[in-house]
Amino acid sequence: MAEPVTDTSLTVKDRHAAMHATLRQRICLLDYPPGTQLSEIALAKEFGTSRTPMRRVLARLEEEGLVQSVHGVGTLVTDADITELEQAYRLRVELTALTGQLDPVVPDDAFLDRLQDLINRAAQMVVSGTPRSFTELDMEVFQTLLDLTANDPLRQVLERLYYRTKRLWLVRAIKAELDLEEEYRIFLHELEAIQIALKSGDLQAVAHIQRAHISMSFNRLLQHRD
After folding, report:
1. Alpha carbon distance 69, 46 (integer Å)
2. What was the pLDDT predicted at 96?
3. pTM of the predicted model, to two decimals?
4. Structural domains of the chain sorted by starting position, each given as residue range(s) with its CATH number in brackets
């Protein structure tokens, strides 16, 4: 589980963002499984803050569809149901293609070094990966590739859709409904293809590679629909 945010040097805005990111990660890694009740008081104490900013963080998570406020019960983590999230997943597939068209960012050497590190870790994943470690790596890859577009509205929508649907894969993996070794190999091949496209300067190709792999991943999930 991610460590709570305790760095007092952060600004108020940065602390709120860090708390949000930590809780979002816990939800996506199923540290907080669907149905878990999140205590505003307990979380505020854990993060060393008052209830008001924590209430705002939980409200943001609710807007993103990760939690739900139930009258008389409290704040509950929402379910990760593929039928309910199918439209969100399909929208994510289509919008991903736009990252190569709307305000694309040409990667510098530092970005390419980050990508190479992710590829090295993905290669190790094929040998000794777990569903949790793969999900953590996938989240890092998503945030890294998101930097290839400077279009803020597109970034915000893609981020929301990604984290709203991310749990679907992990739920299926834990239930042993997926060929994990094959999943890891496909992921590695995707990153290698993206690297080749970036080195050739073709950002639209990068976007289409991502779109294709997201679509294929979703179709594999649909094969195991309950």
Report:
1. 20
2. 97
3. 0.91
4. 12-77 (1.10.10.10), 82-222 (1.20.120.530)
